[in-house]
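Your task
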Amino acid sequence: MKKLTAIFLALSLLVISGCASREGLVPSESAQPPSSQSESEPVKPLQEQPAAGEESDTSEAEPQDDLEGFLKEAFETVAGGDKAAIDQYLDYNTLMGISEAGLSFSPEIYKAMLAGVKAELIKVQQVEDRASAQVRFTNISMGTVLEQYMRKAGEIAYNNALEDDPLSDEKLQVQFNKLFLDLIKEHTGTKATMAVELQMVKKDDKWRIQVDSPLRDAVLGGYVTASGKVGENAGI
């Protein structure tokens, strides 16, 4: 039984993190902006300040609050991977799919998953203490990483199960973590780009980004979608 458990350890590692915060999150029908809108709207990289003297076509697109500056700071902070800093803008545990049971991955892996995040602003709208923004995110393609991870982790687990003195689940977990981190580093040049509509709420004169499943998927390079497919194929 322990050998069989080891075979599925790598799979459950991924699915737990990918699905932990999907339940109860209902994606908005507008979460994926139509491709025609994304192509026609001017895109402003959040990593760059708007050109001097630049003005919006409508007052609604340029709210009184500096939401563009807020989003720029937020996702630069996300790319830094520091939990305490990210929590100032959005909920880190929800973003990374960390449940109350604790970490699914090592902190080093979570940081690597965020290091490649880039964001481009498509459109911002504000109505009093609520606002929305259409943002295009680019990050490492986690679909590519997961595909290779499942194949290689399966080989490790299978070969270990055939050993007379197999590694414990804890030691296998260390190997799986190392494999996953190595694959992320190996595929830093393989990118996934997704556009979503995110929501922001202002409370006590401070804006916060609301984390839902489409935002998680976009920021994490398609990780939620990829891990969900892995779970479906395995019947988890």
Observations:
- Residues 1-9, 20-42, 47-52, 56-64 have pLDDT under 50 and may be disordered.
- The longest helix spans residues 142-161.
- Strands lie at 44-45, 118-127, 130-140, 191-203, 206-210.
